[in-house]
């Protein structure tokens, strides 16, 4: 089975002869202003949030949280130890965990993901822009049913391609927020663990991955 992965540029996907990866989003680091003096905990919602953060020299002694293992590993590369992750890898669970363990936390994420309903201080240190050429490549594959499975790794990506998806294709969603965008589609499978490892486990269950 041919599996189409739609991911932001710079994401890591294991090699498999049946995997097709198209990076339809380009992450771009942006300037931000924040006073970290009163902040006692920081939560990172993605790998790119870690890569674009410029103040690691100012967070010693603060509690550090990550949305899941992949983001945690990116923090560990920067010598950040004792990273805390929620049992279920969603932003909602991350925020809940941070609030339970800190008094004045900060969430670091993308500009398009800022959500004031979360009732937590947030900053954006990067933005995601659609690569129109890559999006057209994805549309060509999806509309003509040239792939069997489409892997959607964010709600934004899902919103960009949902109108292309046909009933001939199985949709693999990384988590609840992504699934919500495509709720009117058929053949949706949601990863139990909301990260790349969870997606690969699901693909294995579907007989599309043997790694």
UniProtKB/TrEMBL annotation:
Gene3D superfamilies given in the database record: 3.40.50.10090
Presence of the UniProt keyword Protein transport in the record: no
CDD domains: HemD
Positions of the Tetrapyrrole biosynthesis uroporphyrinogen III synthase domain: 29-200
Keywords noted in UniProt: Lyase
Transmembrane segments: none
EC number: 4.2.1.75
Superkingdom of origin: Archaea
Enzyme type, top EC level: lyase
GO biological process terms, semicolon-separated: tetrapyrrole biosynthetic process
One annotated GO molecular function: uroporphyrinogen-III synthase activity
Protein name, UniProt field: Uroporphyrinogen-III synthase
Gene behind this protein: hemD
